[in-house]
Amino acid sequence: MTRLEEDISENLNPELENILGRVGELYNKYGIKSVTMDDVARELGISKKTLYQYVVNKNDLVSKVLDYLLNQKNCVFKELLSKDLNAIEELLEVGVYIIKSIKDYNPSTQYDLKKYYPELYTKFHDVRKERMHQSILKNIEKGKEQGLYRKELDNDIIAKIQTSRFIHMSSDEFFDRDEMLKPQYVMELFIYHIRGIANNKGLEVLEKTLDKIDIQEYLH
Fold first, then answer.
1. Cα 165 to Cα 189: distance, rounded to the nearest angstrom
2. Which residues contact 156 (CB under 8 A, 6 or more apart)?
3. C-alpha distances in Å from residue 98, one per residue of 47, 59, 83, 166
4. pTM: predicted TM-score of the whole model, two decimal places
5. What is the mean pLDDT of residues 28-47?
6. Does domain 83-218 have CATH number 1.10.357?
């Protein structure tokens, strides 16, 4: 099992955690290729000697940053899923979280990762895809247990369809990138999914939930 295939359960050294978090911000702002080790040391106000106490080289730094970011996102989702929400509320909460996240999304970061670090990109992509698939599966099972989703649904097929929608968003030939990064696009994707799997009771819960959380607040 690779580092990217598991949560980082050990407690990170606080200084390393700070380094990885701030480097992640730099990568997201400027892309990966353009940010050198000299840039990292200068931006963080540390010497390169100190930086190399934690990482072997830039490839190692990129790998550790990806581990850290995956783990951070996983922690956020675990906290979200631990709330006392029904399956439909849960999905809409995830949608709101994604909308908030994409406001800071920089496509050049993923482009650099795919072009210059293909092995890391593949691992990152595979872990993200599997976690997403498992999360959707659990939500479908939860929705059925709560009497909100149609009992005849094939859980695995539906989970794969929804996972594919998100995983292949950036390669869609019909929508341009700007359209796909709009909050309306993301929320419609979730609402479309819910309407397709909910029974009558679930549809009623959806409408009440949309009114309750004032989804329009996040669409601007």
1. 8
2. 137
3. 35, 28, 17, 11
4. 0.85
5. 95
6. yes
Q: What is the pLDDT of residue 3?
A: 45
Instruction: Point out which residues pair with 149 in neighbouring strands.
Output: 198
Domain extents for the chain? Answer: 83-218
CA torsion sign for 22, 24, 28, 30 is positive
DSSP percent split of the chain into helix, strand, coil, nearest 5: 75, 0, 25
Residue 144 has pLDDT above 80, yes or no: yes
Residue with tokens 């247990």: 145
Contact 135, 162 (CB under 8 A): no
- Chain segment 61-108, per-residue pLDDT in tens: 999 999 999 999 888 888 888 888 999 999 999 998 888 888 777 888
